[in-house]
Design brief:
By secondary structure, the chain is mainly beta. The chain contains no helices and 32 strands. Strands 1-17-16-15-14 form a 5-stranded mixed beta sheet, with no helix packed on it. Strand 18 and strand 19 form a beta hairpin. The radius of gyration is 19 Å and the shape is globular. Bound molecules: calcium ion (CA) (4 copies). One calcium ion binds next to strand 8.
Length: 425
């Protein structure tokens, strides 16, 4: 089923090398991601020979962790948020692999959080297993189809062991890796979605207790909804048209009606909202014109404790953009936080454990970790004193890797292959 989206594009795009033809060329170099529209075409090409970033004009995606449900902050606003402190990086690996995005999960159910990264240039995913003693081992290396990028972790068959879902850009599909129940994975099964499958969110959108998939198809300009059967297989895709070049996708309940809704960030803008009916179908809703000409990734979570999911987006520059839900599927005025040029990925977590969600972001150009601390009202201030991160920082995830109740960070670099973990003190 293809449902036309009636919202029209409100952003003027003529000054970006935009399209006379509605064709899209995606050139992918690891986390370094270029989207061009300068010719009739095509698909995605992966240049594995030259993982050299050109920060000035390189949109660089980093779908992060997992389902973006709606955590409910319980903290109370209390002025200036406490500043968390992090130890210097623990290097997990430093072999050139052209990493893309990462996601966390306890794959072997030993109580210690592991993570997986997509390795775009070699068409693989790489697992890193937590040894429970503050270190990580390089684990399984599993083949994907061409150009794996967005990755999510969720238990698709309810056996308690998390499975892995990878968006495969050039292949136009998602690759499903089912956990064998011991932290090893069965052979990949692919499900076609649409050209340029870029980001995937795994979450139950139709209240049947079975994980579903929401996939952005950048080349197609569409969104695929795959309703799960609870055994690692899925019903035929329900497809919705989006604005051109959808990249990041996030799922949350924007109007508090109990049904999950979807936000899709299109590369040249805008952000399209789809309101959930609760049965796996969605209705095109608000269209958010943004302050940036290059949207990238997006997260949905309740930042101010009103029970409605808000949005955090990033652009391909220096902006972290916060949109507070009005509670009816529309959003308040964009509030921008400016980091160094080269924002590459975002992750949400309660980093200073005050009960409200904060924002951490990777930065390719500055070797800094960016962190915005929530004052409890959904307004943010910059954290200070964070350790250095690898240059070309790209994928970023967060989780309590050493079980001390404090949220740690994990960052991959798309040049040099650094995979690093930052434990909170
Ligand atoms: Ca584990
Ligand atoms: Ca499972
Ligand atoms: Ca479901
Ligand atoms: Ca809703």
């Amino acid at each position: 089923m293809k449902v036309a989206k009636n919202a029209k594009m409100t952003r003027a795009v003529s000054n970006l090398f935009l399209p006379s033809a509605a064709f899209l060329l995606l050139t992918v170099t690891a986390c370094d991601f270029k989207m061009k529209t300068n010719g009739p075409l095509v698909a995605v090409t992966v240049d594995s020979s030259s993982p050299t970033p050109t920060p000035a004009d390189t949109p660089t995606p980093t779908p992060t962790a997992t389902p973006t449900a709606t955590p409910s902050p319980t903290g109370t606003p209390s002025g200036t948020p406490a500043n968390p402190t992090y130890q210097s990086a623990v290097s997990v690996s430093a072999v050139e692999h052209m990493y893309g995005a990462s996601a966390v999960g306890d794959f072997d159910q030993d109580g210690h959080l592991d993570f997986v990264t997509t390795s775009l240039g070699e068409n693989k995913i790489r697992l890193f297993t937590n040894d429970g003693a503050g270190g990580f081992n390089t684990g399984a290396v599993l083949a994907t189809d061409v150009a794996p990028f967005g990755v999510s972790v969720a238990d698709l068959n309810g056996d308690g062991y998390p499975d892995i879902i990878v968006a495969q850009i050039t292949a136009g599909s998602v690759g499903i890796f089912m956990n064998n129940g011991d932290g090893t994975f069965a052979s990949r099964v692919d499900i076609a979605t649409g050209a340029g499958a870029f980001d995937v969110s795994a979450i139950d959108v139709n209240h049947d207790g079975k994980i579903d998939l929401v996939v952005s198809n950048a080349t197609d300009g569409s969104l695929s909804i795959l309703l799960g059967k609870g055994n690692g297989t899925f019903n035929d895709a329900i497809t919705y048209a989006t604005d051109a070049s959808p990249v990041g996708v996030a799922v949350g309940d924007f109007d508090g009606d109990g049904n999950l809704d979807i936000a899709v960030a299109s590369y040249y803008g805008p952000i399209d909202i789809f309101m959930g009916s609760g049965d796996g179908h969605f209705i095109a809703g608000d269209t958010i014109t943004t302050n940036s000409s290059t949207e990238y990734f997006i997260k949905a979570a309740d930042l101010n404790g009103d029970g409605k999911a808000d949005l955090v987006a990033m652009d391909n520059g220096s902006l972290i953009q916060v949109f507070s839900s009005n509670g009816d599927g529309t959003f308040g005025a964009e509030v921008d936080y400016t980091g160094p040029e080269g924002v590459r990925g975002i992750t949400l977590g309660d980093f200073n454990h005050d009960g409200t969600l904060d924002i951490a972001y990777s930065n390719a150009n500055s070797s800094n970790i960016g962190m915005l601390l929530n004052d409890g009202t959904g307004a943010f201030t910059d954290a200070t004193g964070l350790p250095s991160a690898p240059s070309s920082s790209c994928g970023i995830t967060s989780g309590d890797f050493n079980g001390d109740g404090k949220i740690d960070l994990q960052i991959t670099a798309y040049v040099g292959g650094d995979v690093e973990v930052f434990f909170q003190q």
